[in-house]
């Protein structure tokens, strides 16, 4: 039996906030998933380091 792979992206507060901001201010960059992932990861790292 072949199982389907679920390629669901992890919900991230930082990714969601960034996508919300970008949809209003930079809609042309919403397709740049590599950029969004990198920036969301950087924001998470900065937050974790600050707490």
Structural class: mainly alpha
Q: What is the molecular shape?
A: elongated
SS element count, helices: 2
Relative helix content: 55-70%
The overall pLDDT average reads 87
Unreliable segments of 5+ consecutive residues: none
Q: Total number of β-strand segments?
A: 0
Number of domains: 1
How far from one another are the termini? 46 Å
Radius of gyration from the CA trace?
14 Å
Described by strand count, sense and barrel closure, the largest sheet is: none
* Portion in beta strands: under 5%
H and E string: HH
Summarize the structure.
The chain has 51 residues and is mainly α. The protein is 61% helix and 0% strand. It has one domain.
What is the strand and helix layout of this fold?
Elements: H1 13-25, H2 33-50
Helix pairs in contact: 1-2
Tell me what the structure shows.
This protein has 51 residues and is mostly helical. The chain has one domain (13-50). The protein is 61% helix and 0% strand. The chain is built from two helices and no strands. Helix 1 (13-25) crosses helix 2 (33-50). The chain is elongated and about 35 Å long. The mean pLDDT is 87.
